[in-house]
């Protein structure tokens, strides 16, 4: 069965074709990062319009890449939520219109389920059950995954997501949007010895986390250093690198400690890391070296938003494919509410 996957929840338009026998046949992505960069963040109206512009050419490119035609598609999966309402509607309308025209069934997919199952797109993939750490721009959660559709929330960030903390901290260090990945590259050049940032909720005895205070700690440190050195707006380069390193150390320490706790609590031996922060080199190093645990990361291309994970999640839910009719999007949609 050939599933077309459509992702448009935020600032990436992703389209992919997943074949239940032969795996991922094609995927195409357009990122709007450059378009939003001059505003320092995602502008929802611009995002929706750009998704509309990109969906048709990306779908055609996908079919071409896979050597398939519209007639070969058996079902269409799309991101129903959570995300930006207008952006979601662009993808949902496209997917449902195409399904109607082709007379094919439709499968609404939860964006975070897509992220969470994305490590299953690798050759080296986990078996059920496993602990999933979803660590993205909007979410930081631990889930116990017993099977497709069988997810239990173990704990989550009570305020900012880790990716959001990376982006906000990058912004206050003067790095261009979106700064998370850039911050992590500068962290390679830093040493943390001269600074210490808090590890929030490290000892909270549950699997909840908090990252918003970390950004405030960075701000306080920056202001202090500026006052002490009289450097004005431009922080000395090495100090900026050191701040990046210690910030990253703090996030990685918390995520690693909570991951250990989640594995202990469930007794599972496999950890799956998904979402954009899963691309972080230090987090990968730290979680890969947990003793007695097999840690899985999606290929880097599938860490951030993409169509492949939606096509794949859709393929896992083929049994719930249904004819298209009226449809909706769900901008706010906790993963725990998925009822199969
Ligand atoms: P959600 O899936 O929760 O709706 P999202 O789709 O915006 O959020 P993703 O696309 O999965 O999130 O990931 C984007 C986030 O990942 C951004 O916050 C970005 O800064 C962060 N990120 C990407 N690369 C890195 C990196 N190397 N180190 C740290 N953070 C990173
Ligand atoms: Mg994105
Ligand atoms: Fe995402």
UniProtKB/TrEMBL annotation:
Sites binding Fe cation sit at: 111, 115, 305
User: What is the predominant subcellular site recorded for this chain?
Assistant: cytoplasm
Q: What class of enzyme is it?
A: transferase
Q: Show the CDD domains listed in the entry.
A: ASKHA_NBD_TsaD_bac (cd24133)
| GO terms (BP aspect) | tRNA threonylcarbamoyladenosine modification
How and how many cofactors are bound, per the record note?
Answer: Binds 1 Fe(2+) ion per subunit.
**Where does it sit, as one GO cellular component term?**
cytoplasm
Family, as annotated: Belongs to the KAE1 / TsaD family.
Under which name does UniProt file this protein? tRNA N6-adenosine threonylcarbamoyltransferase
Q: Which organism is it from?
A: Snodgrassella alvi
């Amino acid at each position: 069965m050939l599933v077309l996957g459509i992702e448009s929840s935020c600032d990436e338009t992703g389209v992919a074709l997943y074949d239940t026998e032969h795996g991922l046949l094609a995927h195409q992505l357009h990122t709007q990062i450059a378009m939003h960069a001059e505003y320092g963040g995602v502008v929802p109206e611009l995002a929706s319009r750009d998704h509309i512009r990109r969906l048709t050419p990306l779908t055609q490119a996908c079919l071409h890449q896979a050597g398939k035609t519209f007639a070969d598609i058996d079902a269409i999966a799309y991101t129903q939520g959570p995300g930006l309402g207008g952006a979601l509607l662009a993808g949902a309308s496209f997917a449902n219109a195409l399904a109607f025209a082709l007379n094919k069934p439709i499968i609404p997919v939860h964006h975070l389920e897509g992220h969470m199952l994305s490590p299953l797109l690798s050759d080296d993939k986990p078996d059920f059950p496993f602990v999933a750490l979803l660590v993205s721009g909007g979410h930081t959660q631990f889930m116990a995954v017993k099977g497709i559709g069988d997810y239990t929330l173990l704990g989550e960030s009570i305020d900012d997501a880790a990716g959001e903390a990376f982006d906000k901290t990058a912004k206050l260090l003067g790095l261009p949007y979106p700064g998370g990945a850039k911050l992590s590259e500068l962290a390679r050049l830093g040493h943390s010895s001269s600074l210490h940032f808090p590890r929030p909720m490290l000892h909270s005895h549950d699997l909840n986390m908090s990252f918003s205070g970390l950004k405030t700690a960075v701000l306080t440190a920056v202001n202090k250093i500026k006052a002490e050195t009289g450097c004005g707006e431009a922080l000395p380069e090495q100090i900026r690198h050191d701040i990046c390193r210690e910030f990253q150390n703090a996030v990685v320490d918390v995520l690693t400690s909570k991951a250990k706790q989640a594995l202990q609590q469930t007794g599972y031996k496999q950890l799956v890391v998904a979402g954009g922060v899963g691309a972080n080199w230090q987090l990968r190093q730290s979680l890969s070296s947990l003793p007695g645990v097999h840690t899985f990361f999606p290929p880097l291309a599938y860490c951030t938003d993409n169509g492949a994970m939606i096509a794949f999640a859709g393929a896992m839910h083929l049994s719930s494919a249904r004819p298209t009719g009226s449809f909706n999007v769900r901008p706010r949609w906790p993963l725990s509410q998925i009822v199969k």
